[in-house]
């Protein structure tokens, strides 16, 4: 089937990576050559507030939008909304999507993000059982919060804990259920995890670690409790599931030179093995410029940076990935900033005052600083730690725990 329309630059996905690519092409005076294809009927919006300010009722929908309709009109960008990608044909240079004929492209950016992994458990289809990914999900949870008295959050990841905090702040009794033995075991050791767990418990959030959902139990088609594999039952007229993500790799064509390795492998310019196809955001697997290892990162900053970088290279202005990946989270009165690669860390050095909830965990691997996890800290400390991470200079746990040590001077 012939393409009904064709764009020199076609962006798949309306998340932060996709809109960063659009914005970069607009700045390069290429906006009238851009098509933006999104499965959602909404104009692109910012996702982090969906589990934070918007869910808490502290932000309304107009503030979520990256741009109003006039922005796209002024710059000639064509949003193609409400159309889900079903396939890519690199030979014909077309993309198939629901709701219309194929769309042609010159250069293609795959920025489709990730989707929530579904929990296969009896009762999962009951009313009041939610997943959080899109604006519609956050709207529905926010509406359900108005009547809820007890809630169960399944999955103690960062989004799950942001949701738990939002629920508790509305006076809802919350139980967080997770198969792990503590909070955020990939990034926190037991002593730091215990600090966070105590802080949450002090705000009315309880934990059930080392357990999993056996079934959602309901009455009248609505959830009323969660039964676990250990035999416990936790009442709840609202349940939010956040147990990880899946990638839409089924749309990636075979035999097109695109390598898959837990995602779509890209080079330092965000280009796949096909010269006209790029990838960015959650599904891009890149080689970290600081650590020299392949990584796939599901963080807003990485997606924004990668989307803009991909667009710059699509437009023929070469640039390479240089970002030290980072993320942030806000729960209750805790503001978290983290950067680097904390996987397979060998030791954690703690700086600051854990009782006052103002501290930084510094992660060491191979005798060097590889990441930090800062709570209610300051930008100058983050700047110094980033320099130390990038430098790769030898450091010890004792050095980093020395409060008299000036990190800025150490960083040079």
Number of strands: 25
Q: What structural class should be given to the helix and strand makeup? A: alpha/beta
The best one-word shape is globular
Q: Compute the gyration radius: what is it?
A: 22 Å
Q: CATH superfamily name of the largest domain?
A: FAD/NAD(P)-binding domain
Report on the architecture of this protein:
With 412 residues, this protein is of the alpha/beta class. The protein folds into three domains: 5-114 and 247-314, FAD/NAD(P)-binding domain (3-Layer(bba) Sandwich); 129-245, FAD/NAD(P)-binding domain, CATH 3.50.50.60; 333-411, 2-Layer Sandwich (Enolase-like, domain 1). It has ten helices and 25 strands. Strands 1, 2, 3, 4, 5, 6 and 18 form a seven-stranded mixed beta sheet that branches. Strands 8-15-9-10-11 form a five-stranded parallel beta sheet. It has a five-stranded antiparallel beta sheet with strand order 21-22-25-24-23. Helix 1 runs parallel beside helix 7. The longest helix has 15 residues, at 300-314. The model has no long low-confidence stretch (mean pLDDT 96).
Keywords:
412 residues, alpha/beta, FAD/NAD(P)-binding domain, Enolase-like, domain 1, seven-stranded mixed sheet, 25 strands, 23% helix, globular
């Amino acid at each position: 089937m012939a393409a009904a329309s064709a764009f020199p630059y076609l962006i798949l996905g309306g998340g932060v990576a996709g809109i960063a690519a659009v914005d970069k092409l607009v700045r390069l005076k290429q906006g009238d050559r851009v098509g933006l294809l999104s499965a959602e009927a909404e104009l692109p919006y910012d996702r982090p507030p969906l589990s934070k300010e918007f869910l808490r009722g502290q932000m309304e929908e107009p503030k979520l939008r990256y741009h109003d309709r006039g922005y796209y009109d002024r710059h000639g960008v064509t949003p193609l909304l409400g159309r889900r990608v079903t396939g890519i044909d690199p030979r014909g240079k077309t993309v198939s999507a629901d709701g219309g004929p194929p769309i042609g492209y010159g250069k293609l950016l795959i920025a489709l993000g990730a989707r929530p992994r579904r929990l296969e458990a009896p009762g999962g289809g009951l009313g009041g059982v939610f997943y959080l990914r899109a604006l519609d999900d956050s709207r529905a949870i926010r509406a359900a919060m108005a009547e809820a008295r007890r809630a169960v959050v399944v999955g103690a990841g960062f989004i799950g804990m942001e949701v738990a905090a939002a629920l508790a702040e509305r006076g809802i009794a919350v139980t967080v259920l997770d198969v792990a033995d503590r909070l955020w075991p990939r990034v926190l050791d037991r002593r730091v995890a215990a600090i966070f767990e105590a802080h949450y418990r002090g705000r009315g959030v309880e934990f059930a670690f080392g357990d999993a959902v056996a079934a959602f139990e309901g009455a009248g088609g609505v959830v009323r409790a969660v039964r676990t594999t250990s035999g416990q039952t936790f009442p709840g007229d609202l349940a939010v599931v956040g147990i990880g993500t899946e990638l839409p790799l089924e749309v990636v064509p075979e035999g097109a030179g695109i390598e898959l390795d837990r995602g779509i492998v890209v080079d330092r310019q965000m280009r796949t093995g096909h010269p006209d196809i790029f990838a960015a955001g959650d599904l891009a697997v890149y080689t970290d410029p600081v650590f020299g290892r392949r990584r796939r990162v599901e963080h807003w900053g990485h997606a924004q940076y990668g989307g803009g970088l991909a667009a710059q290279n699509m437009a023929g202005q070469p640039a390479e990935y240089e970002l030290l990946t980072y993320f942030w989270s806000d729960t209750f009165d805790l503001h978290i900033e983290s950067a680097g690669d904390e996987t397979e860390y060998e030791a954690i050095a703690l700086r600051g005052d854990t009782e006052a909830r103002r501290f930084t965990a510094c992660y060491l691997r191979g005798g060097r600083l590889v990441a930090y996890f800062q709570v209610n800290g300051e930008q100058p400390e983050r700047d110094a730690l980033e320099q130390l991470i990038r430098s790769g200079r030898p450091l010890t746990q004792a050095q980093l725990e020395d409060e008299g040590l000036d990190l800025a001077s150490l960083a040079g």
